[in-house]
Amino acid sequence: MVLRSVNLHIFLLTISILSHVSQPLHFELKSGQSKCISEDIKSNAMTVGKYTVANPNEPHPFPESHKINIRVTSSHGNTYHHAEEVGSGQFSFTAVEGGDYSACFATSDHKHDVTLSIDLEWGSGVHYKSLGSLAKKSKVEVMEFEVKALIETVNSIHDEMFYLRDREEEMQDLNRATNSKMAWLGLLSLFVCLGVAGMQFMHLKTFFEKKKVI
After folding, report:
1. Which distant-in-sequence residues (6+ apart) come within 8 Å of 152 by Cβ?
2. What is d(CA 117, CA 29) in angstroms, rounded to the nearest whole number?
3. Tell me: the pLDDT tens digits for 86-100?
4. Residue 26 pLDDT more than 80?
């Protein structure tokens, strides 16, 4: 049962890593608005992104109304890519800190409403590392390339498992700390309630003694 669970975990991790190689994300952005896309990147992982705005006047240059501003930042507010008034571009960096990274797109406000179509391809991991071109290679070299790719995929899965384990330990520590604080808060609330009840009892006792009821 444990072995089956581990195999299922590895299979899901493999699917998760392979899913990074996907079609570009397509979304629309109206003038004067902004939109942010987030990507969870682990520490020391390389990430590559490419974005393109559809040119309605192709093959002519981009009109000013179809240019965007983009900023890629980490969850700590550090900027890793910034560009203004562009129609396309790309970025790549190695994540120094793990967590959610955001790519925020914004457009200027124009007199006439304009809707921009943007394609974003963003991913990280082994499939975005430069392993060289397969063009004009022999079958042996192609097989060697595929073996290297499989080895890097296995290493990536191994690193991903340790990363998920570390995240799980962080969440467990946070849950334990939260439970401990809630327990102390519960005890404090109990003592406060007992203190208030004691004060009310003494007040009522004094009141009834003055009224000579007891």
Report:
1. 126, 129, 131
2. 7
3. 888 988 888 888 888
4. yes
- Sheet of strand 34-41, all strands in order from the earlier edge strand to the far edge: 34-41, 99-107, 68-73, 79-86
Which amino acid is located at 59 in the chain? P
Strand 115-124 to 46-53 pairing:
antiparallel
Question: 59: cis peptide before it, omega within 30°?
Answer: yes
Q: Quick one: pLDDT at residue 185?
A: 92
DSSP conformation letters of the chain: -HHHHHHHHHHHHHHHHHTTS-PPEEEEEETT-EEEEEEEE-TT-EEEEEEEE--TTTTSPPPGGG-EEEEEE-TT--EEEEEEEESEEEEEEE-SS-EEEEEEEEE---SS--EEEEEEEEEESGGGS-----TT--HHHHHHHHHHHHHHHHHHHHHHHHHHHHHHHHHHHHHHHHHHHHHHHHHHHHHHHHHHHHHHHHHHHHHHHHTT--
Q: Residue for token digits 């007992």?
A: 194
pLDDT tens, 120-164? 988 776 555 543 344 445 556 656 666 776 787 787 788 888 888
> Are 52 and 121 in contact, with CB atoms under 8 Å apart?
no
Query: Which of 50-54, 82-86, 116-120, 156-160 has the least mean pLDDT?
Result: 156-160
Contacts of 113 (CB under 8 A, 6+ apart): 30, 31
